[in-house]
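Example record

The entry below shows one chain as it appears in the dataset: sequence first, then structure tokens.
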Amino acid sequence: MTIDKSGMYKKIGISKEVLGFGTEVLRTLEERFAQIDQTAEYNQLKVIHAMQKHKVSEACLYASSGYGYNDLGRDTLEEVYATTFGAESALVRPQIACGTHALSVALSGNLRPGDELFSPVGKPYDTLEEVIGIRPSRGSLREYGVSYSQTELLEDGSFDYPAIKKAINDKTKMATIQRSKGYQTRPTFSVTQIGELIHFIKKIKPDVICMVDNCYGEFVETIEPSEVGADLMVGSLIKNPGGGLAPIGGYIVGKEEYVSLAAYRLTSPGLGKEVGATLGVNQSFYQGFFLAPTVTASALKGAVFAANIYEKLGYDVIPNSREERHDIIQAVTLRSPRAVIAFCEGIQAASPVDSYVTPVPGDMPGYDCDVIMAAGAFVQGSSIELSADAPIREPYAVYFQGGLTWPHAKLGILMSLQKLVEAGVVKL
């Protein structure tokens, strides 16, 4: 039986020329995709092993309410996360609203007035600027007497070790290391690179708490920052580890002492991890985490496909088509607002939810310029689902990520190209 895939692509709006271009690119990616599948298999076994080790049972999937005392599912899931990520302890909660909130909880729980927060990797992601107080905001760390310093990366995106050594001082309490690029065009750091940086910092001042923002990076490699020396590792459940099923939530894993301090900030001094009802999300959290390695693999295939498509068309892409991957984000510098908007229109048009909606740039909380977001997702804001977003500012780079399945990620990239062709930006 012959399957007419081209006919279905035509029904969805993909032209013969765009499909042919994509098919030509795909022929070169078999080996890359096989490597991604190998990593997914290894990470899948890690998750299953952790679930079996901690005796996940049907009772773990049940809901709790009120104070949430003795929530078996919640407590067991935190043990699963800790084991999977090679950490002593974990805090995995629906009360954590997003990745920025998780980072804020970890920072606020472990920093005190007079302490200094240090970033050895340059400016953090936009939404963290207000948490720190780089941009004035009510309730920032700066308002509570926590100072901040940073060192810039070298031109090639590597760490400026001499500057880092000079910057660390008696007040330096915590170093925050953002793994992913955010709205920057720098490379994402590998887990090995992060481990080397942590080792360097600890050699200078052993008591510095090293925290890694691991958003978008979970299960991309076979090891995580918490396995190479990170004292704290933080992420969002509506990204990789939620597997597209978690409706909300974030996690903090690491050393018991630092996770406990974060828990006291999340709930209350004296209560910590003991309270916090799960309200029926346990099943989604468990099942999403179980699916996360293969879902992440699908998103990675989409990122690699996008890099190869747009590099072939002459655009700057980070990472490039040949580089190893350390997160699911693909940056494409499209060089104009018109091209950025057309790309995002394509991602939205390929979505299962709100495909008929046209995204437009607008003001977003936590950002200092208009941002366009394409996200026709089952979970609002889920960036493990097919999505793309971009600040409307030079160099006019768009950041693509996600795809719960490889076929959907493929469609999204083809549709982005289709919209660029229709807008007259690209000629095939």
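Notes for this example: The two ends are 32 Å apart (CA to CA). The CA atoms of residues 25 and 309 lie 7 Å apart.
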